[in-house]
Amino acid sequence: MTQTAKVNELSWIVGGAQGSGVDSSATVFARAAASGGLHVYGKREYYSNIMGEHSYFQVRACSRPIRSHVDTLNLLATFDAETAFRHARNVIDDGAIIYDSALAGTKLDDVPTIEARLRADLQTYLVARGLGFTLQDLLKSAADRGVTLVPLPYASLLTQVADENHIDQLSKISRMVNMFAVAASFGILGYDYELMAKALRDVFRSKAEVAEMNVRGARKAYDLVRGKYDAYPYRLEPIGFNGERRALMTGAQAIGLGKVLGGMRVQTYYPITPASDESEYIEANQIVNVREPAADPAEEESDVARETGSVLVMQTEDEIAAVTMAIGAALTGARSATCTSGPGFCLMMEGIGWAGINEVPLVITLYQRAGPSTGMPTRHEQGDLRFALHAGHGDSPRIILASGDFEEAFHDGAKAFNWAERYQTTVIHLVDKALANSNGTMPIFDPDQVRIDRGELITDGWSGRDPYKRFAFTESGVSPRALLGHPGTMFWNTGDEHDEKGHITEDPVLRNLMMEKRDRKLDLAAREISESDKVNFFGDRTAETVVVSWGSTKGALLDAIDALEREGIKLGFLQIRLANPFPVELVTRALARAKSIVNVEMNFGAHMGGLIREKTGIEPTHHILKYNGRPMSSTELAEALRVIAKGKAPRKQVLTYGV
Fold it and tell me: Can you name the residues that pair with 624 across neighbouring β-strands?
């Protein structure tokens, strides 16, 4: 080895045409790294068509916890020409590129799925270096920088596998090339192949024969490169877990798990990216244990010991049906939710208003994506904050909670039901595509931290002296809630304004009382919700510069702030969790001493910055925004914050990196 080894600090990408197995190959890589005790963070990017366009998955592996992606690559694993054309320039000078040697002669114009803008950019880059327009030319430019080139004979490897397994057509096993790329990656990194084999068997556990064929075939690619590229300095080594139990999951899975453990028993949805991932995960895991295992071995086979429950997941004909079906389930007493993205949320407005005026405990998980209209269905944005706040006509009180990472997403998924029932209102759990589709290692969630609070729920019949009033005026604004058909209760639900029993009224006095009653519930929520569910503060509380943000930018900001602290730059970071009711006092207190306030968010209009100004009168001095559909990296955030710390930044910086 000619360079000092750089151990367990890796940024890796695998890419290819959609439908070619990119996600499964990235999952195998991430699982193998995680099985060795490494911390993993993965970012998934894909087009909105089903097949053919380019998709890629970036995975970081590290010996310490990581919370974001970076812009640079240490290792690029490709099995098609387009992935190399798109990502080769992001490989750093001591990095490496794995590629199909048979594709070296591919011309840039031979790849029709590369956009005209990118094609022109690549041509300019190559012309400036006196090179032609083939993949070999681009690889030469990388090699001239010091990048290690790792050619693989994919066709030859496929032929060997086909011969050994008596397969008559290579097309039947063509997807195996992605596992060759993963295996070659571990080979050049010097990582234990058995950990990859274990991950392969796990990912393809329902297809044991396919898994074993992949294990044997991928080993050929691993052995082909193992120990032959000593100049490449990066290495991965297992480090163990030191007693910690971890999970590797996506944000959508964390939310779904939190909702199920939080007592959800009905979920409705209409398929829409990226929200569908959550419902599909719940569908695959909808049978749940509702009893603890029996302590007495003699009872292990009893009905009680084996008792299970289930979550009804209903795919509806549209989002209107999804929200109204969830409302109907909530009226019967089931903890119910619906999940959607921006265009689907648009269709839910009338249902949300009906739930608001009838004080129905409704949970909506809103996965933000790039808009307006259909926008970019599979790309990221934080553009729905104002929409969530004001969705529907009239004043319809709702609680809005924004998660910033996987752990928050899990607990918030459960917590939303407690708030919906305690305050008898709609709770919008605001997340986004970046959080939903990213994955990472995290400590196993503690289900004992999940508590069920059903609020003012009548369970044993109405015992009050007066006739039951579903919408009774109370000091808190919260009325005793009876389920449909509960003994001793009778009430009416209507979309019109109503009196305490639910009868329609246009009486101006009752109207005022009802409007004030519904709003008082938010005052109660503002008093009762814990400070940690409203805001979090990280970094130096005495720092002159405070960053304020919300949602999935949290991880990239924390990693960027850690990097800047090592450079001697001190920053504070205020994460806003509760968007409504807005934590005015806490935000004002956190920002009062700051000389510079940097608002960071993933939208065009600086929505949270405007909300802070509206609620507190405090105006951010700087904005860091991004709206090209790709999430913020810790790399570009660190650079933008560095410029601000040096006093050389404009009032608004727009981040533009994205592939």
Answer: 600, 653
Strand partners, 134: 107
CATH superfamily of 6-235: Pyruvate-ferredoxin oxidoreductase, PFOR, domain III (3.40.920.10)
Question: What's the CA gap between 400 and 398, in Å, rounded?
Answer: 6
Joined tokens for residue 213: 């064929």
**DSSP of 28-49:** HHHHHHHHTT-EEEEEEE--SS
Average pLDDT in the chain: 94
**Percent helix / strand / coil, the chain, rounded to 5:** 40, 20, 40
The domains of the chain are located at 6-235, 248-449, 534-654
Report the length, in residues, of the chain: 659
CATH dotted code for 534-654: 3.40.50.920
Q: Is omega for the bond preceding 65 within 30 degrees of 0, making it cis?
A: no
Same fold, 6-235 and 248-449: no
Beta strands in 316-433 (DSSP E): 336-341, 362-368, 398-402, 426-432
Residue 40 has φ and ψ, to the nearest 5°, of: -130, 145
Closest CA to 334 of 396, 254, 417: 417
Residue 206's pLDDT is 87
Across the range 22-27, mean pLDDT stands at 94
Q: What is the C-alpha to C-alpha distance for residues 210 and 463, in angstroms, rounded to an integer?
A: 63
Q: 370 has which bridge partners?
A: 376
Distance CA 255, CA 249 (A): 10
pLDDT band at 171 (very low <50, low <70, confident <90, very high): confident
**Alpha carbon distance 359, 61 (integer Å):** 47
Q: Under a CB-based contact definition with an 8 Å cutoff, are residues 54 and 86 in contact?
A: yes
Q: What pLDDT, in 10s, does the model give residues 474-511?
A: 999 999 999 999 998 999 999 999 999 999 999 999 99
Report, as an integer, the average pLDDT of 392-403.
95
DSSP conformation letters of 310-332: E-EEEE-SSHHHHHHHHHHHHHT
CA distance 337 to 417: 9
**pLDDT for the residue 381:** 96
Could you give the CA distance from residue 556 to residue 511 in angstroms, rounded to a whole number? 47
CA–CA distance, 473 with 477 (Å, rounded to integer): 6
DSSP string computed for 226-258: TTS-TT--EE------TT--EEEEEHHHHHHHH
Which tokens go with 355?
Answer: 């739930």
Q: How far apart are alpha carbons 434 and 277 in whole angstroms? A: 13
Calpha distance 255→274 (Å, rounded)? 13
Query: 107-134: per-residue pLDDT in tens?
Result: 999 999 999 999 999 999 999 999 999 9
Whether residue 57 contacts residue 77, with contact meaning beta carbons closer than 8 Å, is answered with no
**583-641 per-position pLDDT tens digit:** 999 999 999 999 999 999 999 999 999 999 999 999 999 999 999 999 999 999 999 99
Output DSSP code: residue 468: P
Percent of the chain with pLDDT over 70: 97
Residue 29, helix vs strand vs coil: helix
> And the tokens for 369?
């994506």
In the numeric block, the tokens 């009032």 are attached to 651
274-325 pLDDT, tens digit per residue, is 999 999 999 998 877 755 554 555 545 545 445 567 899 999 999 999 999 9
| CATH number corresponding to 248-449 | 3.40.50.970
**Residue 603 is encoded by which pair of tokens?**
């939208």
Tokens of 593: 């001493």
Q: What pTM does this model have?
A: 0.94
